[in-house]
């Protein structure tokens, strides 16, 4: 009569994983996970897998950065990022990577092929990570609220960016022109405008673009697709920003305000034209001190404009 080995309870786990496998399991069962049934040929792989189930914290730290790993094999693989250089180069944009697998994943961006589809809507994505982030937007739980306008967010990252935009202060400056931006991602996109490189081309005409998002919007001029529909009228738009600006006509929202005369505008370009009448530029904003920036992002969710100005 064969007796199945009893699975130990996690809360009583005092023996090490090696002691557990040596004393409890024999033969083929020794390299089989009792929790999910996965089999292993090498002990170090089995041990790392069991740690992932039992929640033991990684204890092997990289000497070059703060990352930690479950075993030496994973650490040695990671060390190539620091020591082996980035020998795998993208033939489209010349960006280099330490691993061939990472390069292959990166090349999917240039291909434009969207293999990952959301099961809740018709949205498709090139990379699985982008799909994962998108699915979170379907969540009905929006626990992050803005104390200034009442808008709520399901993702803390989007909430933080929204709070920064309320300040009107742009901490990221272009070193080639006078433009400033709220977040680093916007600055990175802007820097492409200073480069002559346009790696994204239209398959139906000879136009080229600096970013994949511009390429996607352009393709809609060929297909006639207008995926962004207004929920207040029948109008549809090719780009999300056009829908966002259009909805402000319905709501009366004017987010771009002149700091000199309090006149407000729906679009940033209208404010720019207005500021020229004052002889000013909207991009010559004061840089927020680091302490105030950390308070805005990491501090309490209820903030006032007095906090941003450094007042009590």
TrEMBL record:
GO molecular function, one term: zinc ion binding
UniProt GO cellular component terms: chromatin; PcG protein complex; transcription regulator complex
Family classification: Belongs to the krueppel C2H2-type zinc-finger protein family.
Stated name of the protein: Crooked legs
Keyword Repeat: yes
Organism superkingdom: Eukaryota
Alphabetical keyword list: DNA-binding, Metal-binding, Nucleus, Repeat, Transcription, Transcription regulation, Zinc, Zinc-finger
Pfam families hit by this protein: zf-C2H2, zf-C2H2_4
Cited InterPro entries: Znf_C2H2_sf, Znf_C2H2_type
Domain (C2H2-type): residue spans on this chain: 31-58, 60-87, 88-115, 116-143, 144-171, 172-199, 200-227, 228-255, 256-283
UniProt subcellular location: Nucleus
A biological-process GO annotation: negative regulation of transcription by RNA polymerase II
